[in-house]
Amino acid sequence: MLNVAVIVGSTREGRFGPVVADWFIAQAKAHDGAQIDVIDLAEVDLPMVLPASVPPAPQTSDLARRLQTADAFVFVTPEYNRSFPAPVKNVIDWHYSEWQAKPVGFVSYGSTSGGQHAIQALRGVFAELHAVTIRDTISFTNPWNQFDDDGRHLDPAGPGRAAERLMNQLLWWGRALKSARAEHPYGS
Q1: Quick check: 5 and 35 in contact, CB under 8 A?
Q2: Could you report the per-residue pLDDT of 44-67, keeping only the tens digit for each?
Q3: Closest to 106 in 3D by CA, of 26, 146, 165, 35
């Protein structure tokens, strides 16, 4: 079993993020080979001011331990102003080695672009951190029109196939990179 951390990136009051995240988490939990750890950034108390050392000194917090033990990540993120929200960048910047040589997948949502600008911005950030981003993503354009009041997708076939594809790729990369890190620790 691979430990997959699903990070809910929106902290905005009245946010739609939990609807999209809960849908994806249900899809991911149905997939064999993944143990899901949900990290909701609205519940994380992480300062916005970074210390002088960049990257920051190794963290001993529960969050840092959860990120370190994760074999793979999926960010569920909205798009704000053609990018991703500040809490997502903050959690990334507070950590460094936790992301290295691990796969990162994306589930995005937003108005007309479906959050694709956020994903494109995140790809460059994770390349800098030596993480591997998964090519296939899940993107919801105007998501508030795609889910019912109970959080069920109104037309689940296409998004369900996209979730299956994303999880297959994430777990393939997760196993390959976990094996490689065990045989030869990254950066050594």
Answers
A1: no
A2: 988 888 888 766 656 668 999 999
A3: 165
Give CA separation, 57 vs 44, 64, 81, in Å. Answer: 18, 11, 31
Dig out the tokens for 150 from the structure: 């109970």
In a 13 Å sphere around the CA of 59, the CA atoms on its Cβ side amount to 24
Helix/strand/coil (H/E/C) assignment for every residue in 42-94 = HHCCCCCCCCCCCCCCCCCCHHHHHHHHCCEEEEEEECECCECCHHHHHHHHC
* CA-CA-CA-CA torsion sign (154, 157, 161, 167): positive
pTM for the whole structure? 0.95
Q: What are phi and psi of 40, to 5 degrees?
A: -95, 115
